[in-house]
Design goal:
single chain, TIM Barrel, globular, alpha/beta, 10 helices
């Protein structure tokens, strides 16, 4: 049993193939998926998927890469998150790789999401790229971690150092690995995957991006998350069943959900 803790099946290239995608999830024992919001205009589509399909959950948030998009307020995020199918705030965070210049707006947006997370008690989905120092600093300043009364969350599609992972874990966050961990060039990240405690690990696809080996270069989808688990099992020299069970348990624990099967409410 596997869970894709981060995907974008509302994106057009996947939304047009939902019956096929769900069938492949079943074939690969992927029982649930978390469809993650990236902006407010498309949020209704994300929520509609979670409302229609019992094995799909949703989040609400605005991605740090989206510059020309409606800016969320704490109050707006809190109101939109007041729904049983919304299990997280995000994705949010900082990205200094894709955008340059004065990114003060990005840091303020991140703070808004953390405050909404604290207000709702729903965990954060954090994206960080080329910005780990500021990401961790703002997490600490805003009390994002469970050690500061926050709801914690997950560092999604993790590509940073072990030191960054350890700092996030110390704040009560989980580390989520995507198909990148299976790439031959990702030796440093593979070392992180070996070292991160399994008790704080999630797996994801970030589909439609970053398909794992042996599907690299193709469109990604939730059913392929099992290949992320298989890679981690090999890296850690641990039984695949253990990786699958622990990451599944971690998902339900982090997002405060009952451990249910496909078709359950």
């Amino acid at each position: 049993m596997y869970i894709d803790s981060h995907c974008h099946i509302n994106f057009p290239e996947l939304a047009a193939r939902l019956p096929e995608i769900f069938s492949k999830m079943t074939e690969n024992a992927v029982t649930h998926a978390l469809c993650v919001s990236v902006n407010l205009p498309d949020f209704p589509q994300v929520l509609a998927l979670a409302e229609q399909y019992p094995h799909v959950y949703a989040s609400v948030g605005v991605h740090p890469d989206y510059e020309d998009t409606p800016e969320p307020s704490v109050e707006q995020l809190v109101a939109l998150a007041d729904h049983p199918r919304i299990v997280a705030i995000g994705e949010t965070g900082l990205d200094y790789f894709r955008l340059q210049g004065d990114l003060a707006w990005q840091r303020e947006r991140f703070r808004v999401h953390i405050r909404a997370s604290r207000a709702t008690g729903k965990p954060l989905i954090i994206h960080t790229r080329a910005a780990s120092e500021d990401t961790l600093r703002i997490m600490q300043e805003e009390g994002a971690g469970t050690n500061a009364g926050g709801a914690g969350g997950v560092m999604h599609c993790f590509t940073e150092s072990l030191e960054v992972a350890q700092a996030a874990i110390a704040m009560g966050f989980y580390i989520s690995f995507s198909g990148i961990v299976s790439f031959k060039s990702a030796r440093d990240l593979q070392a992180v995957a070996r070292a991160v405690p399994l008790s704080h690990m999630l797996i994801e696809t970030d589909s439609p991006y970053l398909a794992p080996v042996p599907f690299r270069g193709r469109m990604n989808e939730p059913g392929l998350v099992r290949h992320v688990a298989e890679c981690i099992a090999v890296l850690r020299d641990e039984p695949l069943e253990r990786i699958a069970q622990q990451t599944t348990d971690n998902f339900f624990k982090l997002f405060k959900l009952p451990a249910v099967g496909v078709g359950s409410a």
